[in-house]
Structures are given as C-alpha cells and as structure tokens.
C-alpha cells in the first residue's frame, strides 16, 4: 500500500500546490491562460505524438478496445443525463453538463501522467486512443444536446460543420493522427526536433496537474448540489466497473490495456466541465463544485484502484 501511496500522491500534491497557489497568490488569470495553452497545444500533443510514433502500427488497430471504452463513456453520459433530466427534472442544458460530470474523465490533464507513472510507457497507446475517441464523442454530444436545448429549429448543416471543425482542429486529435501516420511510415524526426519533443513531453504531466489545481482554485464553488453524490458515484465507480465488465466480456486484451482503461475511467470529472458549463451558461457554479469535490473524492478512490491493479487482485 505504501508503494501505491508513493505512486498516487505526487499527482494530488501537484494539484494541491496549484490549488493553493491559485487561492493565495494574487495573480491574474492571464498567466494561467498561457500555461493552459502550453499544456494543451504543445506539451501533451508532443507526448502523444512521440509515444505513438514509436509504436508498431499493428498495435494501434484495436477497434474492439476503442468501441468498448467509448461505449462505456457514452453509457455514463446517457445514465447521468437520464438521471438529471427525468429524475431531477432539469432542463436539457443543465442535464447535459451533469452528464459530463458523470462521464467526462480528466483524461487530458491527469490521464497520461497517471497511466504512464503507474503502468509505464506501455500504457501510452491505450491512453492516447481513449483520449482521442472520448474527446470526439463528447465534441459530438455536447454541441448537439445544447443546440437541441437552446432552439427548436436546429440547423443540422451548420451544427455538423461546427462539430467537424472542432474535431479536426483539436490538438490532441491532431497529435494522435500525426503519431499514427509517423508510425505507419516509420518516420524518425531529426535529433534536434526529437529532443525538443522530449523536452515538451517531460513537462506535460507536472504542468498539466499544476494548471488543473490553479483552474479549480479560480473557479467559484459556492453552490452545492444534492445530486452530486450520485453523479460522482457514476463517474468514479460505475464507469470503471462498466469498462472492466465490457473488456472482460469481449476478452483477448492485454492486462496492461485493461488496467489503462480502468484508470482512465476512474479519473475525476475534467476541469473542462466547468469551462463548457460557463461557455453555455448552464449549471456553472455547481459544475465547478463537482470538479472540486470529484477531485477530492478521487484522492481515495484512485489509490484504491491502483492498489487493486498493482496487487493483481483486479487484473492478474
């Protein structure tokens, strides 16, 4: 258990340092914007590109794995949405953000750092695939649901074009596609470029986690929500359980890939849930509370899962 604590705590300590810095330091949000730009557009894409480009192409053609993990995320979105819409009787906009709380893992900021530290470089491919296809799924679902909720006369053409543009211009997806292409043609970047990419890759996890802590600290978290325990139960417990059941049912997956999928599913709600709530002016303050409390709850749930994986109890 001590090894598990030593593995997990640095991630939460980096988030905590960012949180304290965000609360105590009297700094503007402009600096955070630049750090987020560095993480999202440079450091994490460099990480995904380098790891994928070094992977044999046949290891990337795992359609059943992608189908299982993406369906699990969609199922959590549908369950959380149904709970918010039909049990809590919320409107479509609020229910959509609540569905994100129950399904949208912090796969960008926390995912690569956690999976690579716990499982090693072999987790890079499944991590990148989950991140890529979960991002595509949510880029489709959120604008579509918000458009339906905001207007009865949804114009399908412009909506589809907007979704397509967001998908093909997202830096994570572009990095994954570039990495797959590089693996296919066995491209080896020049030494100077490869070293630059390595520098960016090494900065990805610590900068992402620190920026996440600052982001949480700067978000308002004054409104609690009675539905939050149910949404976090869906996100932190039901999501990884469904992933495990589906992958075991399909069978034939390497234990490292199953462990990676479980860790990605067990991550707390992404900080981007608040960003999207703010963008659509729906469920804003409660979304920030969900991100904060979800991250705090994962301090317990994530190390437990890591222990089950490291000890071989869950995935031999």
Automatic annotation (TrEMBL):
GO terms for biological process: transmembrane transport. It comes from the Bacteria. Keywords: Cell membrane, Membrane, Transmembrane, Transmembrane helix, Transport. Gene3D superfamilies: 1.20.1530.20. It is a multi-pass membrane protein. The chain crosses the membrane at residues 32-53, 65-84, 114-142, 163-185, 197-218, 230-250, 256-277, 289-309. This is Putative transporter YfdV. The lineage of its organism: Bacteria, Pseudomonadati, Pseudomonadota, Alphaproteobacteria, Hyphomicrobiales.
């Amino acid at each position: 258990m001590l090894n598990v604590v030593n593995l997990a705590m640095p991630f939460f300590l980096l988030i905590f340092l960012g949180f304290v810095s965000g609360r105590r330091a009297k700094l503007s949000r402009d600096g955070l914007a630049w750090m987020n730009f560095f993480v999202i557009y440079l450091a994490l894409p460099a990480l995904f590109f380098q790891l994928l480009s070094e992977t044999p192409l046949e290891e990337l053609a795992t359609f059943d794995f992608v189908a299982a993990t993406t369906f699990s995320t969609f199922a959590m979105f549908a369950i959380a949405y149904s709970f918010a819409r039909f049990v809590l009787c919320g409107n479509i906009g609020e229910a959509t953000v609540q569905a994100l709380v129950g399904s949208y893992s912090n796969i960008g900021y926390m995912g690569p750092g956690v999976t690579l530290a716990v499982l090693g470089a072999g987790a890079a491919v499944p991590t990148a695939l989950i991140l890529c296809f979960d991002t595509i799924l949510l880029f489709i679902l959120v604008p579509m649901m918000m458009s339906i909720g905001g207007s009865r006369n949804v114009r399908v053409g412009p909506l589809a074009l907007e979704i397509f543009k967001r998908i093909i211009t997202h830096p994570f997806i572009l990095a994954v596609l570039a990495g797959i292409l590089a693996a296919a043609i066995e491209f080896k970047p020049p030494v100077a470029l490869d070293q630059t990419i390595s520098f960016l890759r090494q900065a990805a996890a610590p900068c992402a986690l620190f920026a996440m802590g600052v982001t949480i600290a700067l978000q308002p978290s004054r409104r609690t929500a009675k539905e939050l325990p149910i949404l976090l139960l869906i996100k932190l417990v039901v999501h990884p359980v469904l992933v495990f059941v589906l992958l075991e049912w399909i069978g034939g997956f390497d234990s490292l890939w199953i462990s990676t999928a479980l860790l990605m599913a067990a991550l707390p709600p992404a900080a981007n849930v608040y960003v999207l709530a703010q963008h659509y002016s729906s469920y804003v303050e409660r979304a920030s509370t969900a991100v904060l409390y979800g991250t705090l709850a994962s301090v317990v749930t994530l190390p437990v899962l890591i222990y089950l994986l490291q000890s071989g109890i869950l995935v031999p």
